[in-house]
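Person: I have long wanted to understand how a fold can be written as tokens. Underneath my words sits a plain record pairing an amino acid chain with its backbone structure tokens. Those tokens are not coordinates but codes from a learned vocabulary of shapes. I should like you to check that the lines agree and flag anything odd. The protein I mean follows directly.
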Amino acid sequence: MANDEVHFGGANGGECGDVVGTAGLGGEGEGEPHALEARITLVGKDILASIGRVIESVPRGKPGPQALADLLGLDKVLASRVLKATRSRDPITATHRMPGPEPLRRLVRAAETQGVDSGIIAEAYRSIDAFELLIRQGVGDRSTLDAIVSAWVPEARREFELRRKQAAFKAMSQLKGVQCDAIVATVVLWPSADGSRMDVVWLNGLVGMHRVRPGAAVKLSTRKLSGGAEARLPVSLDGASVENAGGLVIPEFSSEPLPRMRAQRVGNNVHYSLADGTFGPASAADVFFAEVNRGELPRAVPAGSGRKRYFFAETTMPAKLLQFDVLVHESLDTSRPWLRIYDTAFEGVANVNDPARDADILDMVESIETLGTGVSRFRSSNSPAYVELLRHACMRLGYDGAVLSGYRCVVDFPVYGSQVTMVFEPPVEGGGSPGAGAGALA
């Protein structure tokens, strides 16, 4: 296999590029999703109209959720949700925004006490009954309805994914016994001295990391998946082997007392672990370390191979946020990356150039942001001293940060066990077009 990929796999996760595919419903027949969409549209149209008429008929002075809540004796959150839903022009969006059947019935009963016409009230009850029937018999429960609607409404999809990812984060942080506020994974690609290869430098950080319970293991890894005879020889910023580097952690950007980190090489993988055994929120620490791989990758792939170059971050630690950056020297002739997020639970880390792994692609709303050129443009609210960290690393390595172009993928509550991957169309040996289009696998 051509040695044309390098990756970081640690407590990081993030994929960059275009969102892959669209969510499907998975119905038995070709027409089933369309029939369900039509039914949801019809129910949404009815409930949007009938509840809207109820709200319009309630005699009230000041507009707004608080006034409606006070008049009807309801919770302000419920009133706000109903008003937001009735302002929707799209019936499917309305079904997503509407509260459940019972809260809607409470609203209608309260409106009835305010003298709203009995015909309007009866129509509202009928639409609510149809809404409930759709939820119970049409899809199973409200959560499933939200999942289906999220395939058609971008706003609903973002909200749906975020809520589920938050719940997964809470569960996994307790099961794993560790969590962090932010994972920062940055790879810097720089031309090697021989002109035919490139350096691959990883700057990795855990912000606000702490053990939720005592004894929990904290582990990160870096790995190179592609074959090739070249041995991987990672070193720290000062040039010492990572296994022997007492200065592996970068003290200027890590917490005091300085976390103790150990490194173990296993083939082309390096496993990093934190030795400290403290736990609880009060023990939260920031840990930043670097791994330098000189001449690790050839600058071009074999002509006609159609192979892609890719870099990834694995989510092996529950985190509230992942920031994954790829910073590329201007001379490396690298295309703008696209994003792929893989489920690694069954087959493990995914090779982008293996078509069999397409089945493991997670369809999510994450995307890549182009940062521009120059370290000063790579600021991050997730790590306030991030630019200073980059400048520090560039100075130690003799790099000019002004000629780096950046790409960033930020993932809120990255899914545990996912692989966030930026995929690039690399140059080919001898020049010319790589042949395969961006995103194609070979």
User: Anything to note?
Assistant: Confidence is low (pLDDT under 50) at residues 1-31, 432-442. The CA atoms of residues 47 and 127 lie 5 Å apart. The longest strand covers residues 197-211. The chain has two domains: 7-22+170-424, 32-149.
